[in-house]
Design brief:
Blueprint lengths: L2 H7 L4 H8 L3 H4 L2 E7 L5 E4 L2 E5 L5 E2 L10 H11 L8 H6 L1 E3 L5 E10 L7 E13 L9 H8 L6 E5 L5 H12 L5 E5 L7 E2 L2 E2 L7 E5 L3 H11 L4 E4 L5 H12 L3 E7 L3 H5 L2 H8 L5 E5 L8 E6 L2 E4 L2 H4 L2
Parallel strand pairs: 8-14, 8-15, 9-12, 9-13, 13-14
Antiparallel strand pairs: 1-2, 1-7, 2-3, 3-4, 5-6, 6-7, 10-11, 15-16, 16-17
């Protein structure tokens, strides 16, 4: 059973489903993305490699003999992701993605349509050219190593950094499960990728003491969480904007421990990001942990306490 894969397939038309479902179960379990490009071959991402899919489910390194994505197939997936209601997802469309059941995130490329009133704002897309379906998978226990390393002495504030597709969101989700065994957690789930709430019920195990703020912007969710839910720990994904820094500063000064993620490959890269370095400077985070990518996806490559490195050998801290 693979809820994320099943939800991704629900977005495909019959012809593409037929090809994807013929991929061997061993390979299906490794799929991270299904990519549709207008009049181009159907492809999937496995680890860090993009492969093409034939009609009989073979994964190919070259596009020859792969299934071609038609305009009709692309439009079908776009409409399915938006549940045939573009107006209900204006905010998501303006940000280029929508999250569907089981935390599957669907990204779009196309021609932007802007509003005429006041400040220009993207209100829709036409001429859809690409759809990227990112499969979310819950991996129970994947954060145990980082939990044991960083929280063995009690609560701390932790920043998890890594390049795209390094497993940050998956680790964050499982940390929520573990930490909420003892502490009250407010989970800021702006894109509904962490808890995958559907009709008010999280599809993923994010813990018994976790309160979820779904589809809020981070600033509003963080301020509201601190004011009304009295969390001991606040968890959010992919921080970076100045408004998010302001809200996280408020939470930190209110005595809330923070766990967050951001894109960065090492401490130098991290400290070159103004918003994140500001939070580090004021002591909002006690530790920074870095993850690898590709075959090292989800593996710890280093843990730092401010400027002091605790560990840099991923083999020494990972299963």
């Amino acid at each position: 059973m693979d809820p994320g894969f099943d939800s991704a397939c629900e977005l495909l038309d019959c012809r593409l489903i037929s090809a994807v479902m013929r991929i061997s179960s061993a390979w299906r379990a490794k799929l991270r993305e299904i990519r549709l490009r207008r009049s181009k071959p159907l492809s999937v991402t496995v680890d860090d490699e993009e492969l093409f899919v034939s009609a009989d489910g073979l994964l190919l390194k070259e596009p020859k003999n792969a299934v071609t994505v038609t305009s009709e197939s692309l439009l079908h997936s776009y409409r399915a992701a938006l549940r045939n209601s573009v107006h209900a997802f204006e905010r998501e469309i303006s940000e280029g993605y929508v999250t569907v059941r089981n935390g599957v995130r669907v990204g779009f490329c196309g021609k932007a349509v802007y509003s005429d009133a006041g400040t220009p704002k993207i209100t829709g897309l036409t001429d859809i050219s690409s759809v990227n379906i990112r499969i979310a998978r819950e991996i129970i226990g994947c954060s145990e190593e980082i939990y044991n390393r960083c929280f063995s002495g009690g609560l701390c504030s932790l920043l998890i950094a890594g390049p795209p597709s390094s497993g940050k969101t998956t680790i964050l989700r499982d940390l929520s499960r573990l930490i909420s065994q003892r502490y009250r957690v407010s989970l800021i789930d702006e894109r509904n990728e962490l808890a995958a709430v559907y009709e008010g019920i999280p599809a993923n195990d994010i813990g018994s003491r976790t309160d979820v703020f779904t589809s809020y912007d981070k600033y509003s969710a963080i301020i509201t969480a601190v004011r009304v839910m009295s969390p001991q720990v606040l968890i959010c994904d992919e921080i970076g904007s100045s408004s998010e820094v302001e809200a996280l500063r408020y939470a930190a000064f209110s005595g809330v421990h923070l766990i967050a993620t951001c894109h960065a490959s090492d401490m130098v890269d991290l400290m070159n990001k103004p918003a994140v370095s500001e939070l580090m400077t004021i002591g909002a985070f006690d530790l920074a942990a870095f993850l690898g990518f590709g075959i090292k996806c989800g593996q710890i490559t280093g843990i730092y306490e401010t400027e002091k490195e605790i560990c840099s050998d991923y083999r020494a801290v990972c299963l």
